[in-house]
Specification:
The protein is α/β, with parallel strands linked by helices and about 290 residues long. About 40% of the residues lie in helices and about 15% in strands. The structure holds NADPH dihydro-nicotinamide-adenine-dinucleotide phosphate.
Amino acid sequence: MAAELIDGKKVSAEIREKLKGEIADLKSKGIEPCLSVVLVGENKASQKYVASKEKTCNALGIKSIAHKIPDTTTQAELIAVVDRLNADPAVHGILVQLPLPKGLDEKEVMNRISPSKDVDGFGPDSLGKLMLDEPGFLPCTPHGAMKMLEAYNIDPGGKHAVVVGRSIIVGKPLALLLLQKHATVTICHSRTPNLKEECLKADILCVAVGRAKMITGDMVKEGAAVIDVGINVNEEGKIVGDVDFDAAKERAAYITPVPGGAGPMTIAMLMYNTVMSAKMANNLPVDM
Ligand code: NDP
């Protein structure tokens, strides 16, 4: 039986629609949510991501300011930009698009972003709160994955979740969020000896590696929910995930497509964090 599609486009559209209403409400109170995006250099993929974030901001009524800085910028100059945005009360979210050009210290720059404006959720304060089960900005891609599960009534409680990939951006925080929802969680990575055996235990299988079709159909447990975060370009120039979708959908009960799954959810959760930040800055109640 073919799996039900977890439609990230649809779920993200619903989230964006709800945010639109909240943004209109904030604007009626004289508050304009504002996201500042810092883009250093000419990386084509980064330019595309920044453009798509700006487009979504504009569609929702979030003010978007892009700071395009040449790759000749020094660490001190970049830090000064972040400091200026940290100090600007009209800015609610700061996002420094990664990767930074060689020679710039990403960690120092990310750690410099004020915890109250860390809408990417990658800073030590945000990640510490996640570890402590305290409310805070959640990293957007893992948060989006959890929202997709929620939208399809897939409760991680009591289930076995396997996360393949342990990056700070996706794998590690996603494992913590699944744990928070009472799943038993296994984290796999490049040194996991028997990946297939681990994956086959997964009621919920989340994959964030960056290798096309590395999860084959026979690695998916019958009836599993599969969240494919991977973004790869295949030999035909098409965007594909990390999971062999056609084979996996024959065994899974639910599966995300690529594109149209985790991607649109990530941007929606960035908008969510920006709106949340604008509310917090104005002492309004937030739903985290
Ligand atoms: P990273 O490269 O930071 O991490 C990849 C992870 O995969 C690492 O933990 C690595 O293990 C693990 N890995 C590599 N090879 C294997 C293997 N053979 N078996 C098991 N695990 C392996 O990537 P990201 O987490 O940043 O991104 C992962 C994918 O998700 C990429 O395709 C990226 O483009 C995509 N992505 C999509 C987003 C979206 O919006 N949809 C957002 C962010 C990322 P180890 O730690 O041991 O090296």
